[in-house]
Hints:
This protein has helices spanning 3-17, 35-38, 60-65, 67-73, 108-120, 139-144, 206-221, 268-282, 296-303, 326-337, 355-359, 365-376, 407-412, 454-459, 464-477, 479-483, and strands at residues 41-44, 77-80, 124-129, 158-159, 180-183, 188-191, 226-229, 246-250, 256-258, 286-289, 312-313, 344-346, 382-386, 485-489, 496-503, 506-513, 519-522, 527-539, 542-556. By secondary structure, it is α/β, with parallel strands linked by helices. Bound molecules: alpha-D-glucopyranose.
Amino acid sequence: MSGRFWVMVAVVMALLGSGVAGAQAKGADAEGHAWWQHAVFYEIYPRSFADSNGDGVGDLNGITSKMDYLRELGVDAIWITPCYPSPQVDFGYDVSDYENIDPMYGTLGDFDRMVKAGRERGIRIIMDFVPNHTSDQHAWFLDSKSSRTAAHRDWYIWRDGKGPGKPPNNWISLFGGPAWKYDATTDQYYYHFFYAAQPDLNWRNPAVEKAMLDTTRWWYKRGVAGFRLDAVDTLFEDPELRDDPVLPGVNKQGDPNTENVYNTNLPEVHTELKKLRKVADEAGAVLIGETWTSNIAQLDKYYGNGGDELQMPMDFMFTTVNKLSAAEFRRQVAAVNSARGWPVFVIGNHDLVRSYNRYGNGKNNDAIAKLMAAFYLTLRGTPIMYYGEEIGMENNDPTRREDVKDPIGRTGWPAEKGRDGERTPMQWNGAANAGFSEKAPWLPVPASYKTHNVAAEEKNPDSVLSLYKKVLALRHTNEALMEGSYTALNEDDANVMAYLRSYKGKAVLVALNMSGERREARFKVGGLRALVASGAVAKGGDVELEPFGEMIAEVNP
Ligand code: GLC
């Protein structure tokens, strides 16, 4: 039987099979889909988005001033990485007060104005919740370290060493060195999975759990539509503190490789997520997870039993396909489609080298950036964009150790250059500092800001930004893209990734040339009408694609 026949069968099956209504959830549409399943999320690193007061660091008023830009782009919710008071050792991921705004970013009044400005434009605000650890300057920790009998002593994880200069066990901090720090005041060690300035909270203490759940309630009351939960897999540790197995070799920080069997992914994590979810449900909020999983079974666990944990665990396995491989992406999309919850796609964030560089070949980077947009924004699932991705922002890695701001880049240099490169200021226009700030920004903008900036790209119909806008607009209006099923097409094609999104007798076909050669893809369909295309034309049921070209087309069966 010919390949074409099976494509036809797939088209017909997909058209027949789609449109089956799911269980109707509260506030859901006819298909049982909630708002966050139709939404496009956009991650903002507040230090680097827009600087309203000219101090070189972005702020909340800056974000508010860009709300119209976000609306026009097609964003429905923004996730802001931590903007709470913090000594900024880990740029906000070391929180010293969970219920306030760092003066560097503004005030609670500014926050309320931002929420209002968002609401007026249909943009929800998602905050970043850092449950695993606080700053070592948090009042809880300052009290905890003051004496062995302090009221907050048991809010953190304190243990005796194994002997003079010997920590309680062999656990290694993700950010380098032992995960234990000796504190002479009380002659004990405290545990920190990340920096020593980020002591781990003791979630086995009910007082900690209560304080943290209350914090989420506090923000929900202030108008927050949900949280992105930071580093959820690290919440619990083995009470017996058993040593982690040691693996061969050393990591980028020069520490022995270990398998984090006893300090990550403990089953208790899921008990706690269920509790956080209960509170979220009372507020109609959504929980997104920083879920680094290595297989679908692990990812499945984060959805909970019957959907009682995270609505949106991120599929980071998708980001580990670090090359344009139709076969690998096909496999990964199929895998996440087999998971028991709604897929969540990201291609970049503040911890990952920008997608522009990860997928780019140095020659066709803009075309590839467009291809990736046409890809992950048309899949069945919710995308989370990273600021600047829509204009083809590139990594701007430091070239000298003394310029590095991210501490892991200083301790791990040169093997680890840190994460500064993917956190540079948003490029608004071609003026000095890319229009981000009047003063020198906290991180330098790359030279490419001259061509890759919002003002220039808004004028150019072929820009990366224009393509993003077109795809996002389509995503919000086309029912097959919003509600439809996913069916892979031409699965033996090594170069062109193709699939159908189908709903109630209508279908959209997506064809993506992941190769640097011209390709033709044949589909057994009556005809195709291009909806959004770049470097591709439809001829009958076939598509001719330039290198890295993409076609999103309506199918006439
Ligand atoms: C998460 C954040 C990262 C941070 C770490 C510690 O991985 O995304 O930026 O450094 O948690 O909070």
